[in-house]
Amino acid sequence: MKLESTKNPRVREVAKLRSRRHRDRLERFVIEGRTEVARAIALGVAIDTLYLADGIDFDPVPMKRADHETVRVDLKVFERMAYRENPDGVLAVAPTYATDLERFVELPAGIWLVAVGIEKPGNLGAMLRTADAAGVSGLIVADGVTDLFNPNVVRASLGAVFSVPVAVCSGESARAFLGSRGTQLVATSPEAVNDYDRVSYGADVALVVGPEHAGLDERWLSGTAVRIPMAGIVDSLNASVSAAIVLFEVRRQRRVG
User: Fold this and answer.
1) Is 77:11 a contact under the CB 8 Å cutoff?
2) Is 68 exposed, middle or buried (0-12, 13-18, 19+ CB in 10 A)?
3) What are phi and psi for residue 170, nearest 5 degrees?
């Protein structure tokens, strides 16, 4: 089978998955890019259909499996389906999957990242990449504004959205869950007294990072709060950068402790 017209209903349906409302209604989302699709397949993510553009030189064998449909697409038609500019010729449609907090109940002690009220898909995607690199046990998206299945989240994560366990819930539910585990909560705030590298991080610790424009509210700051000292004129960092700095301090302490 080959798609050769932008009027084909399948082309239109894929293009509509840019909309969160459409993703929610169909319970489907787009994975775009060779790296992202290959990692999703390698990690066992269910794929409905793999779309491959004609006229682009690459080896599709690592992306093909017997349990999903593979469809060739005219390059101009593929560009209509794709979310990115200058797409690399690989796109998949997959079912959305469960992101409930209960899936974390049986996980052992470890490092957790709590992303509170994050609005920018690129920030959430970058935090997922950092979480993967830092060996985070799970990422909790609390009071999330952006959609986990937003194409920009998938893209910015470079496939880490599939390797890092993710739960989406309210801030209240996240605090109750972490409290029931006895997890050490460490919140980031420019107004904190403690420098991030002067705090001891326990065996089960959750780093809490909030939105850049508003920061965290007092419900998150009632426990341990840490700051990243600034040497210049700025008073805060990008949320994903802040998460990376503190997470790797947690990892450093585990190596030397």
Assistant:
1) yes
2) middle
3) -80, 160
- C-alpha distances (whole Å) from 2 to each of 51, 73, 82, 85, 137 are 9, 5, 16, 22, 41
Q: Encoding tokens for residue 152?
A: 């920009």
pLDDT digits (tens, 9 = 90+) for 18-67: 999 999 999 999 999 999 999 999 999 999 999 999 987 777 666 777 68
Residues of the chain with CATH 3.30.1330.30: 2-95
- pLDDT, tens digit, for every residue of 183-232? 999 999 988 999 999 999 999 999 999 987 777 888 998 889 999 998 88
> Per the confidence metrics, is the pTM higher than 0.85?
yes
Superfamily of domain 2-95: Ribosomal protein L30/S12 (3.30.1330.30)
Provide the sign of the torsion angle of the four alpha carbons 68, 17, 85, 243, taken in this order: negative
- Maximum CA pair distance of the chain? 62
